[in-house]
């Protein structure tokens, strides 16, 4: 077995055991990370030393059982085994068609079954994604409780509000358990999406207390398979589109090496009266499934040109959207964002000894974009006029370099088993915008009788607003121990030490508005009681931290430095879980989250800018119910229900107000019926309904977004053609063409939900 894999995992435990100073520890780990990264191209040579490796995926998927087999034989006889997919192992083929989620170790950084974890994880399985065909992350996560959409930067970024907390590029979206800075994380290479609820700083460091979203990528398979799909769609009103997807995978030789290539291209008209969306993805990957080592290397390239649209405006008199046709945009056709992104990740698992394994993950991702934005700044309803200004961004660049290495394993001390994990994380993230464009003058626009094309994009760069930069570096050491007192009681304790430095500001010459350097201890405590092999109860306590930062200067001229405390969250949670193999998985959670030192923002009509303050506190408490899986041989379902009380508890102006874009009640239900053989092929039918309650559109609660219910439906028909399966799939989204507003930035920037779309795809498998 090549030594580079084991060497890359060993510095962490040895250094911790001998008290190695932090600087030398960091250097040692980076050396290990570099060795592993450089060794990935040698996988083709290494596979020759691993006879019989082709069977490794099955061994990796059952690693959790193997690790404790010798010491827990009696317990295993009483409690049924649950499949957990290893961090670098593919999902078993027999589970790919289920609505019941398969736990993925990249989210919890553990092979522990969900019943043994004192925290809720809700997953949208691969089959759900195939059936519903969500375009963006928030659409997929409407299947999960307590989720709403936040400010998406005019429909160009994922912004997921989890238990009341979140923001665009808040660091809460992961890709295979590693941070993502790309605006959109959902694409054709996604296998499933997992939400880890509640404070997750013990696992991921700097984080809001609402939770983490992890996109799990498709991995190469050792069985050859190629699928080609052609699609066409329409929103009506002459707005049409089409796409092509290729997904091909297979083995390289017979020693456990495998490859996969995913190519996806979509080109369509935007559903409103103008705009185009073009999106191309190329995602190759390579994997090696050896006897003791599994490794995956992913790469994703995305090129896009999409509408930059948030032109629904609140009438100041009625506090409701202007009474206009929903398809009418109030900006110009040049309002687009265009750019590209690169994502390179590797994940390596190595079994060091029976019951002990090392894990190493590396990630680098980069996104660049330019955008035009005709910004609405005022409305005069008496004259039917809007005030608009041609703004834009040029040379935006976001990067993130990340590495984590840890060791986990089991030790039996008497009758007590300890499942331990210890390791470190390193991250360097930068968000930068070069030229900020602001037109010298504003223009009036008649929204009742619009005439487009009278305003052109501006090229006026404002030096004082340009060179916006936010750089964050952080390093962590962490340890966790899950103590098994027999087959039913599990106590979990974890601790992370996190140190960070952050510099943010803007302007030419550059002016620093944030400069902090600090460290904090983050504990996690939990208790699990397993009622039987399918049910458990749990309780947990955890903390989170997120440094306060601002690129823009505060109205008072204050600079955020280390004297300003970071945002801190504290959560208490109790709940129950159900996991019936081959049946249903469910969770019920009651939680209370308090967050203090909150950075509060509100749009200022006088200055036409966002005002920020650092003195604030917020609380979110509620109850969530989720269920997913199979009911009998023909029915599959996924559903959720949440009640959430999220409000500002401390602020000079906004104390007692509800948190913006956060609904008190959300619910969803989706069901699929497998009709079996109908004519020459197999027929499946499904539908989904999702409800989002009334919620405030800003921190001041000056206006509210109305509640809405949206329904979707689909049907698939699979029949043999030339001895190969051909699948026809029809999807109808927003079945009843409901007008709704999923989120708002301020009173001049509401998002409009997509109109009814009918899409038909034809897929061929070879």
From TrEMBL:
Keywords assigned: Cell outer membrane, Membrane, Receptor, Signal, TonB box, Transmembrane, Transmembrane beta strand, Transport
* NCBIfam families to which the protein is assigned, alphabetical: TonB-siderophor
What are the annotated GO cellular component locations?
Answer: cell outer membrane
The TonB-dependent receptor-like beta-barrel domain, residue ranges: 287-735
Which GO terms fall under molecular function for this chain's record? siderophore uptake transmembrane transporter activity; signaling receptor activity
User: What Gene3D superfamilies would the database entry show?
Assistant: TonB-dependent receptor, beta-barrel domain, TonB-dependent receptor, plug domain
Query: What family is this protein classified in?
Result: Belongs to the TonB-dependent receptor family.
Where does the protein principally reside? membrane
Give the signal peptide as a residue range, or say none if absent: 1-46
Q: Which ranges carry the TonB-dependent receptor plug domain?
A: 115-212
Tell me if Signal is a UniProt keyword of this record.
yes
Enumerate the Gene Ontology biological process terms.
siderophore transport
Q: What is this protein called?
A: TonB-dependent siderophore receptor
Check the record and name the PANTHER family matching this protein. BLL7968 PROTEIN (PTHR32552:SF85), FERRICHROME IRON RECEPTOR-RELATED (PTHR32552)
Top-level division of the source organism's lineage = Bacteria
Task: Provide the protein's localization.
Answer: Cell outer membrane
